[in-house]
């Protein structure tokens, strides 16, 4: 069985609302109209802007494709899979205006 590795620096990152994005950044999310994007939550992580609504809630760690690692994912709120063996993790902190981001791979 492969080992699940999670990398995070546990840095708190502020959630960015759509109204704070530049015009160019807003164009990346053309599936949101002008009204929808205003209060939509985003976060900057590893040089990219992530739409927090693209993350799937981890209700049960078995939702992760490499589900043999359920204990390793305890405490993470959601995941956005990059591949069958890797993805980006998010954990909301405090009043849900900040998040901790991480990356997992097997």
**Helix-strand sequence:** EEEHHEEEEEE
What is the number of helical segments per DSSP (H or I, 4+ residues)?
2
| Global geometry | globular
Structural class: mainly beta
Assembly annotation: single chain
Q: Main sheet?
A: 6 strands, antiparallel
Number of domains: 1
The beta-strand count equals: 9
Question: What can be said about this structure in brief?
Answer:
The protein has 106 residues and is mainly β. It is built from two helices and nine strands, in the order βββααββββββ. The relative contact order is 0.25.
Provide an overview of this structure.
It is built from two helices and nine strands. It has one domain (5-105). The longest helix has 5 residues, at 23-27. The mean pLDDT is 87. By secondary structure, the protein is mostly beta strands. The strands form two sheets. Strands 1, 2, 6, 7, 8 and 9 form a six-stranded antiparallel β-sheet that branches. The chain has a three-stranded antiparallel β-sheet with strand order 3-4-5, with no helix packed on it.
Keywords:
single chain, 106 residues, mainly beta, 6-stranded antiparallel β-sheet, 3-stranded antiparallel β-sheet, 9 strands, 8% helix
Q: What's the structural blueprint in terms of helices and strands?
A:
Layout: E1 5-7, E2 12-14, E3 16-17, H1 23-27, H2 34-37, E4 41-45, E5 48-51, E6 56-57, E7 78-83, E8 86-93, E9 98-105
Antiparallel strand pairs: 1-9, 2-9, 3-4, 4-5, 6-7, 7-8, 8-9
């Amino acid at each position: 069985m492969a080992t699940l590795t999670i990398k995070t620096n546990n840095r708190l990152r502020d959630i960015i609302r759509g109204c704070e994005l530049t015009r160019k950044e807003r164009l990346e999310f053309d599936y949101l109209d002008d009204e929808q994007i205003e209060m939509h939550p985003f976060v900057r992580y590893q040089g990219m802007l992530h739409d927090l609504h693209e993350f799937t809630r981890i209700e049960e760690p078995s939702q992760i494709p490499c589900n043999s690692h359920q204990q390793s994912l305890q405490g993470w709120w959601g995941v956005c899979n990059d591949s069958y063996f890797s993805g980006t993790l998010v954990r909301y902190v405090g009043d849900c205006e900040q998040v901790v981001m991480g990356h997992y791979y097997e």
